Amino acid sequence: MMFLEERIDLCEVARMMFDRYLTNAAGGNITVKVSEELFLMTPTLMSQAKFCRLTPEDILVVDKHGNIYEGKGKLTREFNMHMAAYEALPEAGAVIHGHAKESMVFASLGMQMPNLTEATQKLGDIATLEFAPATTKELAKIVREHLLSRNGQLPVAALLNKHGVIVVDRTLRKAYDMFERLEYNAYVGIHAKIFSALGLYKEERKAYNYNLEE
Asked: Which residues, by range, are in coiled-coil regions (predicted)?
């Protein structure tokens, strides 16, 4: 089997993603760049049909054109969005897309997520992108243009309007780590807005010497 260890790791990350509410039964998908030509990708309906309980045999080995070399699953329709991310950020090694519980609040309302935690400062602004229907070439184009605007910065995270979250980083584990950081930041952001409405919190415009290297 091609890339067995990488496929086992991808299965583990997909399971963690589902169990920790970083996606739901409505969807989500992950790709890992394993060479300049080949990618690993979770199959379509990984959440709805399998609740992210995948086996290495389920994981697809594909090229950038969507040709499947190995794996018993079918290609997700979000494939074009993932490839757009790799085109925009050649140093990227993994892309994770999910419907994270807390982050979906900001995505669904079309709001920029406040970046409040030290662990997410390296992301900079956490924007909600212009709306385009899920799985479309239009959405892939919007994602690509946003990632190009970050001038090669990694990691990158963005909210997909009415849809979910996309996180791009150099490795699968780094991308997953940043996804969890983002979700905790969303939780903090929601409660900060509640506390602000109750008069218990006032936002401070203060510069901090954040640790961006961890």
From this structure: none
User: Six-digit token pair at 33?
Assistant: 């760049």
Distances (CA, A) of 91 to 125, 152, 155: 20, 8, 10
Q: What is the pLDDT of residues 53-108, one digit of tens each?
A: 999 999 999 999 999 999 998 999 999 999 999 999 999 999 999 999 999 999 99
Torsion angle of the four alpha carbons 75, 77, 81, 82, in this order, in degrees rounded to the nearest 10: -20
What CATH number does residue 191 fall under? 3.40.225.10
Amino acid letter for position 87: E
207 lies in a domain?
no
Number of domains the chain is built from:
1
pTM over 0.85: yes
Domain limits for position 161: 4-197
Rg of the chain over Cα atoms, rounded to whole angstroms, equals 17
